[in-house]
Specification:
The complex is a heterotrimer of chains A (538), B (308) and C (307).
Chain A: H1 9-17, E1 38-43, H2 58-67, E2 72-74, E3 80-82, E4 85-90, E5 96-101, H3 115-126, H4 135-140, H5 146-150, E6 161-165, E7 168-172, H6 180-183, H7 194-200, E8 216-222, E9 226-231, E10 245-250, H8 254-262, E11 268-269, H9 277-283, E12 288-301, H10 314-323, H11 326-334, E13 339-340, H12 364-378, E14 384-390, H13 393-410, E15 413-419, H14 421-430, E16 435-441, H15 448-451, H16 468-477, H17 483-497, E17 500-512, E18 516-517, E19 534-535
Parallel strand pairs in A: 1-10, 14-15, 14-16
Antiparallel strand pairs in A: 2-3, 4-5, 5-7, 6-7, 8-9, 9-10, 11-17, 12-16, 12-17, 13-17, 18-19
Chain B: H1 5-35, H2 37-55, H3 75-78, H4 98-134, H5 136-150, H6 154-164, H7 169-195, H8 199-206, H9 211-247, H10 259-268, H11 275-303
Helix pairs in contact in B: 1-8, 1-11, 2-4, 2-11, 4-5, 4-7, 4-9, 4-10, 4-11, 5-7, 6-7, 7-9, 8-9, 9-10, 9-11, 10-11
Chain C: H1 2-29, H2 43-52, H3 59-73, H4 87-122, H5 127-141, H6 144-158, H7 172-202, H8 205-212, H9 217-255, H10 260-270, H11 273-301
Classes of the chains: A alpha+beta (538), B mainly alpha (308), C mainly alpha (307).
Chain lengths: 538, 308, 307
């Protein structure tokens, strides 16, 4: 489990120097607040749980950020800001962290939030009896004994975290992790009110029992329908929280969701139905937004021994990549401000220097010509590839278009195979494909979150592409003074050998009611806190 | 059963009468059917749809998977039906010719309907006729199996099947085949029960005709009227069924398509100023189903002597 | 009658047991795991999850435990995805919703469809007949996944009369659109069945006699014709009920009603085995019981039926 590595030194330095101001919504000058301070948004699917330690997906994380608060939170740019902790000290080698907790942090039932609440939560997350699907996250922090506890070899009480007193939390890591404070903003490491859990068992997450320490409290919850949060008067910064009520509507069908948005039912629709962004941008220029989102879309090529021999030839892989007209995909299919991808790491990743990719600057005609040349050189004829993707409107469109590009330009037959999510994951993991659609979202804002997964032996490297030189460059980046140079080099190797076919870099397209202010457009991880929002009168 | 003289006589009589009687019955029915204007018009429509499915591809230069790159990106403005670029029905959301796709979708949808109906006719009729004719314990067991299968929430099971196994047209046929014959078996059995005590059957038994032969030669032909009516009404139901499966995203694989998949795609683009994407497939779907229902009703009226 | 019901129940029980075994084995054969994610789950975490849900035991033992819990305790176990809820919780939340809009759709379908069918038969071959037939076929062939968005477009976006989705405890304005979308195709079927059986009854001897005696048409229909004409309709109610429950898949997706259909589809897609099995078994059992009920009603109305 060495999936994540050291953040670049620059980022670490920022963390050590200081944090951005903690306070919630600041109303811009000239804005008049609306009388009715509410915010409502659409969710695609019901989140399975609001238990922070059991949560494993985005929809639940969004809600947890409102009703729970970790040691740290993120500001509008994605920088760290104080949450329950006011500040922290890191030991010289970044292995021991001491967090100072604020005096006035309270649970929604009035109890003070203590360091012990964090200790309990973190032990709970690692405890095999809890069986948290995100137990690996605790391991990832490199907290002492975490891996052993998850494996059931040690008691949870041996975890490397202790409450020195009510206001001081001390964490011991086995390895230097300069970005540890950043990791505490994620749901898994949020605190928990153990008396509530002990009293109600798994029912503690229902609205009548829920005790949280966030700016909002869970008020109503009807599965697959909606939920409602109300302002938490016990929250330490409650006086600066402006929005009183948050409603989430679960609307499964995206077109239905759009119709209901247009009828004025709620404030934020994310993401937009495939292909509607241009029309909406024109009709509702104030509302339609497109911001970079830290995910990259690519096609993996099966490099396993049993995979198609043709794909083991770098010339064929390169030809396939050259023949993909990314401009058509981003400008004519997706049409939502996505960026064409010629390398893997998302172009908006912090501190990332884009590599020089020769064919990125060619015209498509030049690329096509080169692609044909390469295919001739490789002597490949009558190739038939199986392309798998999971059921989704956009994946279907891209697969359709790419298969036609390959067919028309290179004479390759492509069999499309659309499967639903779980089957697709299974088939992909077993390598029962030639080409697979994959997307990877950064876990944190740094290039290694992308590049690491393509190293040899990584679970997520489903194409099983392997390149010694690449592995070496990535390994060196962990201890390098200038990892950005390593990342750039790695991207160049990847592109030279065409280990994957990068397609595009994500953008988040959404509709936001212009009356809602304070949405963090520059947070590329799409982490938002309603306590920063306010609604203006119009 | 007694094989006395009267029975033999009756059998002889039946042997002489049956073809005559049968012919006149069918002739009658045909006359009545052709007097039903809606049914005749539907018949014509259906033939046209069939011809469209069979030969429609020959009049277009586009295939069902080829992308018109020139239109991609400006489909709402330029992707509509047009003679100049020979997209008679416009293009779909990825710039593929909608006409060619409707032709191919029509093939799949008709095939689903007809295969479903065929399975039901073959399996259902045989099942019902055997159960009804043999009777006794065999009947009980066979009909209990039908009852049992009918109580399975089939749509849920089909969703499971399609989700669990890699989906294909073959899987869809299995799913449809599993359920389509159940009603038919019940109907055929009921009809068999009323036929089996008729004189000509008893006569056949008396003259020593074997059971399978009686079922094949005497029972089944007399079930045909009911079976045909029911099968005609089953075809549109199967097509609707497939469209629901397609709506769930569990239908045929790209680049193949079906009416359900096309309509679903059109409905998704309802707000994108591309009305042809919904209009053409939906028109084919609705018109064809109307035709099947009218023909089914017409056949029933024609074959049901009670309504004379 | 009691013997008849008992006999049917005796068949129902093995049917339901078979259904349990069948859905269990189907889930067993399914590729994909409820715990699979894009990033992959480390073996230690996976082992903990499997231990928690008892997946580390052998198949036969698990099936035995499962059947025992379901049959004896009515306990479908914990949901694999909704980590702090049991399948019983989810069903308790979703099923009343589905039952509510299913019930009203049923009432609307029978009332409107029945009336339409009777009118069409009584005024056979008049414009009313053609209109009724046209409407009923039209309603049957327009896919409800096309109708649902159009309804929302008209009543929510353009007219602003009704909410486009949600449930809010089943308030009437939240109920209308789902009921319309769900009931139309069943309404159409009922109209067609009523029409043809009514036509048959109206041509029967006893009705002709009644009319020849000079009884007014309305009285003839209400007193004499309606009951026998409804027999085929009653036998259609079983499949119609199942259809309504199945239709909830679509209603929940479009109207965010939070019924059982959405839970089913989501759990099938995410391999939430216990939820899939729970819902399949529940629906199967209800189907069996409902068919039984229909048979009983049928036998009660039509004394000619032997049992």
């Amino acid at each position: 489990m060495k999936r994540r590595t050291i953040l670049s030194m620059t980022t670490a330095a920022v963390l050590a120097l200081g944090l951005s101001p903690a306070h919630a919504a600041t109303v811009a000058e000239g804005d008049t607040l609306a009388e009715n301070q509410t915010f409502s948004y659409r969710l695609l699917d019901q989140f399975p749980t609001l238990d922070p330690q059991l949560n494993e997906e985005t929809a639940g994380s969004h809600v947890l950020r409102q009703i729970m608060e970790g040691l740290m939170t993120q500001d509008a740019q994605g920088n760290l800001r104080p949450g329950v902790a006011t500040d922290y000290e890191a030991s010289e080698n970044n292995t021991v962290y001491t967090f100072n907790l604020r005096e006035d942090a309270r649970w929604s039932n009035g109890d003070p939030v203590t360091a012990q609440d964090f200790v309990n939560a973190w032990r709970r997350a690692a405890d095999p009896a809890t069986a948290s699907p995100y137990a690996w996250y605790v391991e990832l922090t490199q907290m002492k004994n975490a891996a052993e506890i998850v494996a059931g070899e040690m008691d949870p009480s041996e975890l490397g975290v202790e409450a020195v007193d009510d206001r001081t939390l001390k964490v011991t890591l086995t390895k230097p992790v300069p970005y540890f404070p950043a990791m505490t903003s994620y749901a898994t490491l949020m605190p928990i009110h153990m008396p509530t859990v002990e009293e109600h068992g798994s029912d503690w997450t229902s609205p009548e029992n829920y005790v949280g320490n966030g700016a909002y409290m869970l008020d109503e919850l009807a599965l697959n329908e909606y939920f409602k949060l109300v302002k938490n008067p016990e929250y330490w910064d409650a006086e600066n929280v402006i929005i009183d009520e948050v409603t989430g509507l679960i609307i499964n069908d995206v077109n239905q969701a759009l119709t209901r948005y247009e009828s004025g039912e709620y404030d934020m629709l994310e993401p937009l139905p495939a292909g509607t962004y241009p029309r909406l941008k024109e009709e509702r220029p104030e509302e339609a937004k497109s911001v970079p989102r830290l995910c990259s879309y690519y096609y993996a090529m099966n490099q396993r021994p049993e995979g198609p021999p043709e794909l083991k030839d770098p010339r064929v892989r390169r030809a396939l990549s050259l023949a993909v007209d990314r401009d058509i995909i981003v400008d004519q299919i997706l049409q939502g401000g996505q960026q064409p991808g010629y390398y893997f790491t998302h172009n908006a990743t912090a501190g990332f220097e884009p590599p020089e990719i020769d064919y990125a600057n060619w015209t498509q005609a030049e690329r096509d010509e080169k692609a044909k040349e390469l295919m001739d050189e490789a002597g490949v004829d009558g190739l038939d590839l199986k392309l798998i993707y999971n059921t989704d409107e956009n994946h279907k469109k891209i697969a359709t278009v790419v298969s036609q590009m390959w067919k028309q330009k290179l004479g390759i037959d492509v069999t499309l195979s659309n499967m639903e999510w779980s089957t697709y994951l299974d088939v992909r993991r077993e390598g029962n494909f030639d080409i697979a659609r994959v997307a990877w979202c950064g876990d944190y804002n740094e290039a290694s979150t992308f590049l690491d997964i393509l190293t040899t032996g990584q679970e997520q490297n489903d194409g099983k592409w392997s390149n010694e030189e690449y592995d070496k460059v990535i390994a060196e980046s962990k201890t390098s003074g200038d990892p950005a140079a390593n990342y750039k080099k790695a991207e160049e190797i990847l592109s030279e050998d065409m280990g994957i076919i990068p397609i595009y870099h994500y953008a988040n397209t959404f509709l936001l009611n212009p009356a809602i202010k304070g949405f963090p457009m520059e947070n590329v991880e799409n982490n938002w806190y309603v306590k920063d929002f306010y609604r203006v009168a119009n | 059963m007694l094989a006395g003289r009267p029975a033999v006589e009756a059998a002889e009589q039946a042997a002489h009468m049956e073809p005559v009687k049968g012919r006149s019955l069918w002739q009658d029915a045909r006359t009545r059917f052709f007097h039903n204007k809606a049914a005749v018009a539907s018949m014509v429509i259906l033939v046209l749809v069939g011809l469209f499915a069979a030969f429609g591809q020959f009049v277009t230069p586009w295939s069902n998977e080829e992308i018109d790159w020139a239109l991609l990106g400006s489909i709402p403005e330029q992707g509509g039906p047009s003679w100049e670029n020979r997209h008679y029905f416009g293009v779909d959301e990825t710039g593929r010719d909608l006409y060619a796709r409707v032709v191919q979708g029509t093939r799949i949808s008709l095939m689903v309907g007809i295969v479903g109906a065929l399975i039901s006719v073959v399996v259902g009729t045989a099942w019902g006729a055997i159960a009804g004719y043999v009777g006794g314990r065999v009947d009980t067991i066979m009909m209990r199996i039908v009852d049992l299968m009918m109580s399975i929430p089939y749509m849920f099971v089909l969703i499971l099947l399609l989700v669990v196994f890699e989906r294909s047209i073959f899987m869809l046929f299995i799913g449809i085949g599993l359920i389509s014959w159940l009603d038919m078996a019940r109907i055929a059995r009921g009809q068999t029960l009323s036929i089996k005590n008729k004189e000509f059957v008893e006569a056949a038994i008396a003259t020593g005709v074997s059971t399978p032969r009686i079922i094949a030669r005497h029972i089944v032909p007399n079930l045909l009227g009911v079976v045909i009516v029911y099968a005609t009404l089953l075809v549109p139901q199967m097509i609707i069924f497939e469209s629901f499966i397609s709506f769930l995203g569990l239908g045929v694989q790209e680049p193949s398509t079906s009416w359900g998949a096309l309509i679903n795609m059109g409905a998704d683009n309802m707000r994108n100023q591309t009305p042809w994407m919904l209009g053409f497939p939906l028109a084919f779907f609705v018109v064809t189903l109307f035709a099947f229902f009218f023909i089914g009703d017409g056949l029933r009226d024609a074959l049901d002597p009670k309504d004379r | 009658m009691t013997a008849f019901i008992l006999k049917r129940l005796a068949i129902a029980v093995p049917t339901i047991l078979l259904l349990i075994v069948f859905s269990f084995l189907l889930m067993e054969a399914a590729p994909g795991s409820p715990f699979a994610t894009e990033r992959g789950v480390p073996p230690a975490v996976l082992a903990n999850l499997e231990a928690k849900y008892g997946l580390d035991k052998p198949l036969i033992q698990r099936m035995g435990i499962y059947i025992y819990d379901v049959v004896v305790n009515f306990d479908f176990g914990p949901s694999f995805k909704f980590k702090d809820r049991t399948v019983n919780d989810l069903i308790a939340q979703g099923f009343p919703v589905t039952l509510t809009y299913g019930f009203w759709s049923f009432v609307v379908a029978v009332a409107v469809g029945g009336t339409l069918g009777v009118l069409a038969a009584v005024f056979h071959n008049s414009w009313l007949d053609y209109l009724a037939v046209g409407i009923s076929i039209g309603a049957q062939v327009l896919p409800n996944f096309v109708m649902a968005p159009i309804l929302v477009l008209i009543f929510t976006l353009w007219l602003g009369w009704l909410p486009g989705g949600g449930w809010r405890g089943g308030q009437i304005e939240y109920l209308i659109l789902p009921v319309i979308a769900l009931s139309t195709s069943y309404m159409a079927s009922i109209a067609r069945i009523t029409r043809s059986s009514m036509l048959e009854v109206l041509n029967a001897g006893f009705i002709r006699t009644a009319r020849a005696k000079g009884l007014p048409m309305r009285r003839v229909i209400l007193r004499h014709a309606l009951k026998p004409a409804m027999l085929p309709v009653i036998s259609y109610l079983g499949p119609a009920f199942v259809g309504m429950i199945t239709g909830s898949v679509l209603i929940d997706v479009f109207f965010s009603t939070g019924g059982i259909g959405q839970f089913f589809v989501n759990s099938a897609l995410s391999r939430d085995y216990s939820v899939i099995m729970g819902i399949t078994i529940l629906i199967g059992t209800l189907t069996v019981l409902f068919n039984l009920l229909v048979d009983v009603i049928y036998a009660w109305i039509d004394p000619k039926i032997r049992y």
